[in-house]
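== Polypeptide entry ==
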Amino acid sequence: MHIGNDHLLSLPTPDVPGGPDVRFFPNGFATQLKSWAWEARAETRADQGTCDMSVPNLVHLDPQRGGCCTVMPYFIGDILELPVTTTQDYSLFHILNDYSINLWKQQTELIMEKHGLMSFIIHPDYISGAREQGVYKELLTYLSTLRDEKNVWIPTSSEVNRWWRQRRVMNLVPQGNGWRIEGEGRERARIAYASEHDGQLVYSLTPQSQKQNMEEIENSF
């Protein structure tokens, strides 16, 4: 998961005619994106390795319709897009009038089922009140519990950016009767084996052949 972003920098908006206002942070930027074309054009002004956090996966409460409909990071050219996958603080407090973390908890549970990115955008000016700060502290406590009990990774945006780029260029190479991973960062990667179960695609970190052998051994006792 990712909460917020790295330390924000105040830098000039890139010269993209008709484009959105852009806020830069180390290794990336965040925009109120209005057009995929603007982001593609902004790419020409971005250094290699840039990531962006602009596009929600769903936008029921946002002024611009659309959404990327995924909880996974994805590339637009060489820009890594980190989708906004949870309701933003303003929408929660001022549109839904909800001062609990119940919705955030529902969203995180759904995202964890898909092993996706849980991204939270929290604005300092929206949590200046005691009531809002109480909700924010409750969220942090909940996320800390997920980290400790479910081994959830809590990185900065640049850490997500670095890992997803390493993952992108890794390769699976045959090795004996199995496979191995090659590429930078391979020590952090795992091979997931896909299979069909009751009409659903499921993944396992154990090869199907090895699982069958283990089941045969267990059934022999």
